[in-house]
Design brief:
The structure is a homotetramer of 139-residue chains. The first copy, chain A, is 24% helix and 35% strand. With 139 residues, chain A is α+β, with helices and mostly antiparallel strands. Chain A has a single domain (5-138), classed as Hotdog Thioesterase (Thiol Ester Dehydrase, Chain A), CATH 3.10.129. The longest helix of chain A has 16 residues, at 27-42. The termini of chain A are close together. Chain C binds chain D through residues 14-15, 17-19, 21, 24, 26, 72, and chain D through 14-15, 17-19, 21, 24, 26, 72.
């Protein structure tokens, strides 16, 4: 099975820095989403692409481990790694690296499920996602 | 014509304060919206209430004048005043007072138009809003 | 040992709702912070109070489990529960309840450490926090 | 006098889109700041660069005129234009263009003043800014 990893660079905004002069911890959730959406654009799995297949993918679990601080003007990079699962879930692992300091800034994981447009939880892997796995993991 | 004014109190969040230890200027736009929605709840003009009448009310003009700073733990109050207009517009004036310092923190104005659910600009005052004026301004 | 729990109510802002008509998942991190700060105000453990003791308390681990959706105009309540630890850590468990639907909306946990104003990690429990434990847990 | 204009591209985040499927109006303030900071990086006038000269530059007036909507996945560009003033003020005009639709999305203006690190309003143009004008406008 191929390993799917995408890296994307982020500019820290002035408004993302808190009164302790560091990026407010809640903004890492946005950075994870930036990484996930950047991954999705490359690998046909963006939020809108999945939506056009008839599904939304709400996050059901999110975890973030903070390793070192990020300051304004630091250049950061988000590595988003697809974690395959036999369940009807979409799992990503994240690593945020602070390229200005060279340090690992955070790691994390998100777990998403598939919801039909009627809001029903999809218990088995949707056919479009089976095809996606065929294309991207086995191809 | 009656004057319609609503006052609402706001707690400043830690995440709303920037690296200069003051509320980031962009968050005043949220406070204005808090004031507008609090006004709307009391006066039947909330975003969802208008939406159920078949309209959305996008903001077309926003202005904010910053008068004094707001810090974390300051208690602030937003005064939202309805400004009547013969045009198919919804206009509000805002005054944010910092009750901790007793100073005026900001003034501002927002102008909204009416958009049908098809996204068409409504050039005349919608009937539901004429009724609203009858009820609240002349009653 | 006494159990320390604080409950606080939150109004969902229009700007916190995403294009799927539900509160964007990242905003739950703000709600947790609202709960933590509300707890802190009652129990002398607010961000500024700790800062005046010479410490900041950066979050090193955050977890959120999403159980049901929150919509605009839903009334939500955050329960923040202090979790005692023998380590130099500050741990809180959270439960967000959607009072409009009566459903549990999310659970979560945050872990904070103590950092001196020089940015050094405090490896033992700071004296002010030992006193705090004496006062609030044994009293 | 030379005209100073900087253009920068922005990716719209999923979390910046509201329940009407369009970018929430308050986020335009962030986009203006993105433009201003991108201008500052190129022209030695970034927030941190000015701070190192002994000044902060709080915004005292902000205006935004919304012209057309921005959707998720739209590519937008912010044009930031320096507006010279004889007063001790820093003025920028903004134009946000939606490159996906080809339409003007918004125009706006921000006015900033100079504050010393003691929080005093600087009534005359600070020497560092006179030098800046010499370098960038007359050079």
């Amino acid at each position: 099975m191929k390993e799917l990893i995408h890296k994307t660079s982020i500019s820290v905004r002035f408004s993302e820095v808190d009164s302790l002069q560091i990026v407010w911890h809640g903004n890492y959730v946005k950075y994870f989403e930036d990484g996930r959406e950047a991954f999705g654009k490359i690998h046909d799995l963006g939020y809108l692409q999945v939506y056009r297949q008839g599904f939304s993918m709400p996050i059901v679990n999110l975890e973030c481990n903070y390793k070192s601080i990020i300051k304004y003007e630091d250049e950061i990079e988000i590595e988003t790694r697809y974690v395959d699962s036999p369940a009807a879930k979409l799992i990503f692992d994240y690593r945020i690296t602070n390229n200005t300091t060279g340090q690992l800034a955070a790691t994390g994981r998100s777990v998403q499920v598939f919801l039909t447009k009627d809001g029903e939880l999809q218990l088995t892997i949707p056919p479009f996602f089976e095809k996606w796995k065929q294309k991207w993991l086995k191809g």
